[in-house]
């Protein structure tokens, strides 16, 4: 049975017995307006599983998002300025893993970063023995060179070992060979495995990383990450957060049928908030180009059906869309009319709900400024509805 709150370091590897695991990265948005920021409560644990300093992962997010970061090692506070969704940061973490963790030769994550005498950063792989260079054009490399990783014991390169560009590794530490290398690896794996279990329960349960920050709510969110759909361990958890995290983990393979089955299993099919969670979590930046609207339209329609009698479900549908384009993927804001039109033509969105939403700014789902921006983008669709009504009257 899969461990709750733990995923494969390589999320493209669909193997329950894959031994390289890490905690699911958690996020919490704090502040408002210009002071809004995204806190990553368990960044230290995630980075530890990757054998990288948490400064590197957090700084990488800042480089990719063009945002300032706060790296407070003593207080264990890792912050990226601005509001960023957990989905977006997890996608960036995958990029970091590919660029600065995985061996370029065998794609194994069991690597250490070493800096050569010529200031080149190499990934030293303990699995295949290769030393492969990272992309030195990335901004993070400058930060790494100024804040080098702590020296670890290094293998003494044997004859025939390939080093990219003939770089000579930095001296330091005694060579490790034969059985000593195996012992060191075993100790390291056992240590990391032992530390993963409390990551999602004891350590994180006291962190404030959601709207409800009391210990009970936090513990529920953590436990809701179980990847075993047949497990009874998740009974009694917050079903909405369990649904959100289940979708984020299984989204690549999700279908209308599998999502519906999960919702029914959680007993929240009739809840209007379920619609919001599904919309903001299931769709991605490819909501239009990837034809996701068409793919999941039957599921959304069934969730809000019959639309005429479920006003709250309509509001939740539009609220989820606000969070999707206003928070998760701001670059989609200009596509709001296309999304609304797609739902309208599929009999998912009602005309009355769209008009009322388009003329009443609300901060129920997002900040007021974001709410205004999304509604402003929807004006062509609302105008089209008004003109259609005028033609009908004539």
UniProtKB/TrEMBL annotation:
Residues 229-394 form the W2 domain. The keyword Transport does not apply. Residues 167-183 have a biased composition (Acidic residues). GO terms for molecular function: eukaryotic initiation factor eIF2 binding; GDP-dissociation inhibitor activity; GTP binding; translation initiation factor activity. InterPro entries: ARM-type_fold, IF2/IF5, Transl_init_fac_IF2/IF5_dom, Transl_init_fac_IF2/IF5_N, Transl_init_fac_IF2/IF5_Zn-bd, W2_domain. Residues 157-166 have a biased composition (Basic and acidic residues). Gene3D superfamilies: 1.25.40.180, 2.20.25.350, 3.30.30.170. GO terms for cellular component: cytosol. GO terms for biological process: formation of cytoplasmic translation initiation complex. Residues 139-183 are annotated as: Disordered. Keywords: GTP-binding, Initiation factor, Nucleotide-binding, Protein biosynthesis. Belongs to the eIF-2-beta/eIF-5 family. This is W2 domain-containing protein. It comes from Serendipita vermifera MAFF 305830. The lineage of its organism: Eukaryota, Fungi, Dikarya, Basidiomycota, Agaricomycotina.
């Amino acid at each position: 049975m899969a461990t709750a709150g733990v995923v494969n370091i390589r999320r493209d590897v669909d193997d329950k017995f894959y031994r390289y695991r890490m905690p699911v990265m958690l996020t919490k948005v704090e502040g408002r307006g210009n002071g809004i920021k995204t806190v990553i409560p368990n960044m230290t644990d995630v980075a530890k599983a990757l054998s990288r300093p948490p400064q590197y992962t957090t700084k990488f997010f800042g480089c990719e998002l063009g945002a300032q970061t706060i790296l407070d090692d003593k207080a264990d506070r890792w912050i990226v300025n601005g509001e960023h969704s957990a989905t977006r940061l997890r996608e960036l973490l995958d990029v970091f893993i590919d660029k600065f963790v995985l061996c370029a030769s065998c794609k194994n994550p069991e690597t250490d970063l070493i800096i050569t005498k010529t200031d080149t950063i190499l990934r030293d792989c303990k699995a295949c023995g290769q030393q492969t260079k990272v992309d030195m054009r990335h901004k993070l490399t400058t930060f790494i060179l100024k804040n080098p990783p702590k020296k670890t014991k290094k293998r003494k390169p044997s004859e025939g070992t390939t080093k990219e560009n003939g770089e000579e590794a930095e001296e330091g530490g005694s060579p490790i060979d034969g059985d000593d290398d195996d012992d060191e690896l075993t100790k390291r794996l056992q240590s990391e495995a032992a530390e993963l279990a409390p990551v999602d329960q004891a350590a994180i349960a006291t962190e404030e990383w959601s709207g409800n920050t009391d210990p009970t709510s936090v513990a529920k969110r953590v436990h809701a990450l179980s990847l075993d759909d047949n497990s009874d361990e998740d009974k009694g958890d917050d079903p909405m957060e369990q649904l959100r995290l289940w979708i984020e983990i299984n989204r690549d393979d999700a279908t209308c049928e599998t999502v519906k089955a999960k919702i029914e299993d959680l007993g929240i099919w009739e809840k209007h908030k379920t619609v919001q969670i599904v919309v903001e979590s299931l769709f991605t930046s490819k909501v239009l180009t990837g034809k996701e609207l068409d793919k999941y339209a039957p599921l959304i329609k069934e969730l809000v059906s019959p639309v005429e009698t479920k006003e709250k479900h309509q509001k939740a549908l539009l609220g989820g869309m606000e969070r999707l384009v206003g928070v998760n993927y701001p670059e989609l804001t200009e596509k709001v009319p296309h999304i609304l039109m797609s739902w309208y033509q599929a009999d998912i969105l009602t005309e009355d709900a769209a008009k009322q939403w388009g003329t009443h700014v609300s901060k129920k789902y997002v900040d007021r400024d974001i709410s205004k921006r999304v509604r402003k983008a929807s004006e062509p669709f609302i105008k089209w509805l008004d003109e259609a009504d005028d033609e009908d009257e004539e």
